[in-house]
From TrEMBL:
Protein name (record): GNAT superfamily N-acetyltransferase
Keywords, comma-separated and alphabetical: Transferase
GO molecular function: acyltransferase activity, transferring groups other than amino-acyl groups
Segments forming domain N-acetyltransferase: 163-295
Family matches, as InterPro entries: Acyl_CoA_acyltransferase (IPR016181), GNAT_dom (IPR000182)
Superkingdom of origin: Bacteria
Amino acid sequence: MTDVVIRALGTSDAELFDTLPDPLGAREGHRLTRHRPDWKRVALRDGRVVARGAWWGGPDDSEPVNLNWFDVAEGEEEAGAALLRSAPWQVELELNLPAGWRDDPALRAAADTRVTAARKAGYELLVERLLYRWTPAGGLPERPGRLQFRAEPDDAVFFDALRRIHSVTLDAHALKAIEQGGLDRAAQEELDFFHWCPSPREWWQVAYTPQGDMAGIHIPAHNPSGPCIGFIGVLPDQRGHGYAYDLLAECTHFLVGQGAEFVAAATDLGNFPMAANFAKAGFPVVKERLNFDPA
């Protein structure tokens, strides 16, 4: 077997990226994603593409924020690992899979090939997530009408709320940030993401009970691929009332009011309460995601 050759692509040879089969439907999943040609890399054996990766970031980012398209031909796990190890950007890997992929032998085999390659390159699984997509076919979720929603211009209010919300959290990314830098880091990472999104700052809202107590926050957002539920969070002392559903319903209504024709969302696989709220609000699971941290 000949050695693998790793190549960075550009506008002149970007078509090489499309020569590898796509059993997991990544192309359709990235229909609204803009990948830069010079952030694509391939591994070739005897001139044939056996692994590929497309790194991704926002239009103003100087470096990728993640690797969200990674494919490996059957039996070419070492080539896939070499592609990952050789990349100049060691960022989080998102492996997006069709919903129910474990129940389909062909899909599971394709996923296992990619997971094996990632592990050989030193990547470690951080969390499994469920990806949702609301469309008008599901109907707008009913607003319970229990909370009052207000815009809040002061970032400090959101920072404090995020610290309190993440003091009791199931979110794997937040827990990782807390381990690395405490609640302040977890809260700041959320704020940085909200500001990174191209949607207006004025959309952020705080929810209050009729008695005037803060119940939580919700962030309607647009990421570069379209409208999404940026964040839903209930304060610890307000939990137990089902307010997460109220926040989700309001966030969905808000985005539709801004012209959204679909709304994307995600939650960790182990966050059963939030998954139940998405189901209640008419958000079907459309994909599953494995998030890996680089070595």
